[in-house]
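This is your field. Have a critical look at both lines of this record:
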Amino acid sequence: MRQAVITRHGPPDVFELRESPDPEPSAGEVRVRVRAAGVNFSDVLSRLGLYPDAPKPPLVVGYEVAGHLDAVGSHVTGLAEGDRVFALTRFGGYSDVVVVPAALCFRVPAELSDTEAAAVPVTYLTAALALYRMASLAPGEMVLVHNAGGGVGTAATQLARLRRAVVIGTASPLKHAALRSFGVEHVIDYTHANVGDEVRRITRGRGVDVILDPIGGSSFTASYHMLAPLGRLVMFGLSAAAPGERRDWWTVFRAWKGTPRFDPLSMINRNRGVFGLHVGHLWEERAQLARLMEMLLSELRAGRLRPVVAKTFPLDRAADAHRFIQSRSNIGKVVLTT
């Protein structure tokens, strides 16, 4: 098999394409011939040495893949060789072959291409867990999606609109037209405007019901203060720690230092809730993930959800994929192809 290996922590140039023997599935596992693999910002943090869960280099990152099954281990039911699938992986996704637990593998709707399928698992699960499970989003509520042009942002917009919620999105100006076409009703240029002031203007001072924040640092504090009574903040990232292609410890320290320690009495008095979300720490909650994934698959088959793929890169250009995602130019998901 071929793998895009991070040889050491550093800029995108640390990627190297290497060959390894194909792995064999054990009991309860399946082997996927990968056609496409999703790129997530956690992969960038792993490359920079800023992701605590990541193994030490040399390592292969990647949390989601799509392709077809070419081997099935014993005690696996409901899946067969030749099935088109997408799967959740715990690292190792930047490969053209992966072995995964069968419980984390799902058949791909015929309506989706391989690249679209690779844009589903982590992105849509994150958005669905944040909006539907944690925030219990209700029709008519207002949702603020930070980085609305990213993979999770575009998925969250679709899911929020399914619940007939009103979406406010932050993005740079070049993304505004696309976001409006996706159904974002209010777009805020975070590069020039004060997001808090704009939210107060849009909501006439009330604040928003739900906020999704992958930025971290002081953004968590600012988001908390934008919540309406009974509002819910879901935090699921720390992109503020990695604005550039190289690790900058001063930037990392500022992001860590700016991360708030929420006061329970403040939350009680203001009737607000704060949630933390890390999909990578839910791999053992397979029954819960499967139920949510079945809901997503149903909506994908019905055409009410459609993954937005910003750009694809071949596996041997994983470095360019990381440069692209760190440029914050993507509208939708960045995907590697094999």
Residues 211 and 223 are 7 Å apart (CA to CA). The chain has a mean pLDDT of 96. Residues 286-302 form the longest helix (17 residues).
